[in-house]
Design a protein that fits this description.
The protein has 247 residues and is an alpha/beta fold. The chain has one domain: Ribonuclease H-like superfamily/Ribonuclease H (Nucleotidyltransferase, domain 5, 2-Layer Sandwich), CATH 3.30.420.10. It is 45% helix and 20% strand. Strand 6 and strand 7 form a beta hairpin.
């Protein structure tokens, strides 16, 4: 039986040391990266050809980054995502919690980041042990330990599997998918209930994309939300908000 090749694009959202409420890593898994690459490249060219987006041409040329893009650009990109072939996986830390404060006292930043990455990587490899795995991880400056060293230590543990990996810079089209879905999930954890209740677009987008999300692992109370299972364990906004409130 011939091997299948899976491709993974991993990116973080938030920061482990800023005043945001969430730090997360997202990973998309696909076996058709060339297809999504070409679809996103075409979107880039189509937007550059539209008079409406002339003043954003340089922004579009740099690539798709949800936190930087004009809302209308975000709309065009989000409209593509349900049509593309991928599944998304998340490791999430809710920072406004006693759990996170204790974690920061017990672990160095690079140890937390390494564990989040390994959770994603291990899950992907072990799910399809006999296949080939190619990981693309977006570059990140990590205090006290370079990302390349963190990844070397992780992947050394899986040397018996058919695995490749590389660190890539911003601008990769497939990483843009991870970036955009990260951004949406990140905003589901908005702590201010009044602000969240008014942000209808975030909720609408999540409800369109949730079928693409295979798993969300929230560290604080060891919660695993997925596409199947008990009602309270499904990838739904109410479940995510409840987990956040109990963190």
């Amino acid at each position: 039986m011939s091997k299948k090749t899976y491709y993974y694009f991993i990116d973080e959202s938030g920061h482990i040391n800023n005043d945001q409420n969430v730090f997360l890593y997202g990973c998309i898994k696909t076996d058709t990266p060339n297809l999504s690459e070409s679809v996103i490249a075409k979107l880039k060219e189509d937007l550059k050809d539209e008079l409406y987006f002339v003043e954003y041409e340089k922004q579009i040329e740099k690539g798709f980054h949800a936190c930087e893009n004009h809302p209308d650009i975000k709309t065009h990109f989000y409209k593509l995502l349900p049509l593309l072939n991928f599944r998304a996986y998340f490791e999430v830390l809710y920072k406004e919690s006693e759990y996170f404060r204790k974690l920061k006292l017990a672990k160095q930043d690079y140890e937390v980041i390494a564990k989040m990455l390994e959770n994603l990587i291990r899950r992907m490899i072990l799910k399809n042990r006999r296949d080939k795995h190619h990981f693309f991880i977006e570059e990140l400056k990590v205090k006290d330990k370079p990302l390349k060293n963190i990844l070397q230590e992780i992947f050394d543990k899986y040397h018996e599997f058919d695995v490749e990996y590389e660190i890539v810079s911003k601008g990769n089209n497939n990483l843009s998918i991870t970036d955009y879905i990260n951004y949406n999930v990140f905003n589901i954890f908005e702590p201010d209930e009044e602000i969240f209740s008014k942000n209808k677009r975030v909720k609408q987008t999540f409800n369109i994309l949730k079928e693409k999300i295979a798993l969300i692992h929230i560290w604080n109370n060891i919660s695993f939300l997925s596409r199947r299972g008990k009602k309270e364990e499904l990838v739904e906004i109410d479940n995510l908000r409840k987990v956040m409130a109990e963190a």
